[in-house]
Amino acid sequence: MKAGSPRPAWLIRGACALLTAGLVGSSVPITTGHKGLVSPYTYNEHVFPILNDRCAACHFERGPAQMSVLDYDSVAPWSEAMRLQLLSESMHPDFVDPIDSAVMREPTISPRDLDVLLTWVGGGAPRGEATPPRAIAPTRLRWTSGRPDLIIPMRVPHTVHAGDREEIHEFSLPTGLSETKWVRGLELQPGNRSIVRDAEIRVADGPTLALWNPAQKAMATPMGTAFELSPGAMVRLTIHYKKNYRDDDSALTDRSRVGLYFAQPSRSATIQTLLLSGPATDAATESRVLTGMLAAPVRMLAIRGSLDRDYSSVTAEALTPTGCRSLLVLRSPRADWPRRYWLADPIDLPPGTTIRVTATPLARPSVDALVRPSHRFEVAVEFLGQRQ
């Protein structure tokens, strides 16, 4: 459910006031299914189009999310939980601080659509009198960017056994290439969408091509840039599998496919990676600090992070010989939503620049926010080397 960017305080206060106003004067407890039907919006006429557009990538029957939003009887029992997710901005999360970060971002839910959803829930979540809409469930897999130039399937199916709820598994996929190619875009086509939660696709001993989840499609590289793929390269596909509660006792099988889109050959525009390193923790602040120095002038394109736990904040800055420049600020980022942040405008940085990333821990972490053994703490800077 794409509930995007941080909301202004006035908007959240207004939404809360609107929810409260719909219940003032009523002795009915705030319990889904028992609220007075006072909402001017109904599921059939107003809510379904929003959910179908913003949430159906994950929330469909037998999809990766807990429930479907594509029919009234499925979503109504979850309406109160949906309200809480929207108000807390937990789903679909956007961690970027828009004031201090100039990065490319996904389209977010509009204030009007947010108001419709919150008012609908607060007013009793009515079905409506209009003819129920026909659910447009994503029942058939397709390549959203057209047929890829190269499709690489998993060599054999993988089974998540009965009783196993969650696991991370890595697969090696041979490309069969006989010549160098440059990758400008990538898609993952899950073989079993109910258990494929997210994935990392990278070249063995090479760059990470994409971080993928059902709600956030892999973004193409900036115009005129690409990742290099050598002859005979192997692609490493790391998939995070997680079952829904309904499938805990079932064995489920997946055979996903990776689709690669190639660019015209251009070695001068090959994207390079600087992997930052640093101490495990800063003794004074308990923050984790990673650093890396640029030995030559570069044009910085993106910051890609992987977290081992949830943090209060993550900041990235460039310390140049003449000063400090903020690159990215994340508020309350979660480890289970790894992302690559492409800069809205590439930044030219001189040699001797230090890239510093600081991850500040949560003051009172929940059990879910503690260290995840299957996750690593890693941040990479991706750039183009400038011609001398």
Write the layout of secondary structure elements.
Elements: H1 9-21, H2 43-54, H3 72-75, H4 79-88, H5 111-122, E1 150-153, E2 158-160, E3 166-174, E4 181-189, E5 196-203, E6 208-212, E7 227-229, E8 234-242, E9 252-254, E10 257-263, E11 272-275, E12 288-293, E13 298-306, E14 311-320, E15 323-331, E16 339-349, E17 354-361, E18 378-385
Antiparallel strand pairs: 1-10, 2-9, 3-8, 4-7, 4-10, 5-6, 5-8, 11-18, 12-17, 13-16, 13-18, 14-15, 14-17
Key descriptive features of the protein:
388 residues; alpha+beta; Jelly Rolls; 3 domains; four-stranded antiparallel beta sheet; 5 helices; disordered N terminus
Task: Report on this structure.
The protein is built from five helices and 18 strands. The protein is an alpha+beta fold and 388 residues long. A hairpin with a 4-residue loop joins strand 5 (196-203) and strand 6. The longest helix is centred in the N-terminal third of the chain and has 13 residues, at 9-21. It is globular and about 65 Å long. The model is unreliable at 1-34 (pLDDT under 50).
